[in-house]
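Risk register update: the risk of archive-format incompatibility is retired. Evidence:
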Amino acid sequence: MNIKVFACGDIVNTTSKDSFVSSELAALIKSADISICNFEAPVSGAGNPISKVGPHLKQLPETIDLLLQSGFTMLSMANNHIYDFNQEGLETTLQKSHASGLCVVGAGKNFDDAYTMKIKKVRGTKFGFLSACEAEFGCLIENGSHGGYAWINHPLLDDMVQKSRSQIDILIFIAHAGPEEVDIPLPEWRARYRRLCDLGADVVIGHHPHVPQGWELYNGKPIFYSLGNFYFDWGCFKGSANYSYSIMLEFENKEFKGYEIIPHKLINGKTSIISEPAFDVKLKGLHLVLEKDYNTLVNQMVIDLYKTRYEPYYANALQGVYNNMGLFEKMTKLVKWLFPRYNEKARGLMLLHNIRIESHRYVTQRALSLLWEKHS
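Archived output:
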């Protein structure tokens, strides 16, 4: 009998105290031997907000039991919001999850917990799960005195992936990375996910962009670059249909056998399976673009991202440096901007945000390189 693993994308529930999964989809989730989702934010009621750039997200405590009732067995918590309400918020979320019998991967109350591979044995096959996110706020880059989530580029993870074969039969790597609201993965993340496969991962499952991206088979191993939102009722996604997809992976005799793409959207407040030709065509296109015209499209995408998201920030940060100022004033202004300790806390956090988080750095560097080549 084949073993099935269900996986979906980002979940934030701020409003629903009843199930937000349709009965048809819940039945499918329950039919899997293992079902995992990205639990995008801590539960409300504990902890104070950390200093960071961007919103602080939290979700209803009932969300954990609702996911359990819908058939989920595992929560991936390596994401950029799980530490939004500090150690107390994270530990409360972990305690509630464990009390409900849900397995947690990718985050923990300390460094070792966050970097622990979780093992599930199903009918003689041992599955290992690792989960990690890029270096946003809450990332455990170094072993300190607090918790957080695993960093996707930590050398420790490479070692763990390589050595996993001595402990398990199948390794599934959950990745949370990439620019938000774009439907093509960056080359740097594509290379990283492929490298994880080279090291020993059998499947890589991505999310964080909040929209679906394509998938590919790399040396026979599936990589799903972004599943998009499963249920997300906060911010600009509140009231959105959240068109996206989940996957059902199949394994037989300790080997990967295939996968099913499960398109869904929000209908009457519940994530529901859909069959819409237009969305099927879109998903197929996202899949095919990784094989055709990828370089041209991704280069245009990063230039657009840079001009709309990043260049305005940099321009604003430097405004006035060369306008009606003497040389000494110009240099003083520039130094204060470059070195956060001379500047406002908010600007320092924004500088850290754009330098440390890989996706921001990748986009800026790639776009500037392309623009430099174009004008040289």
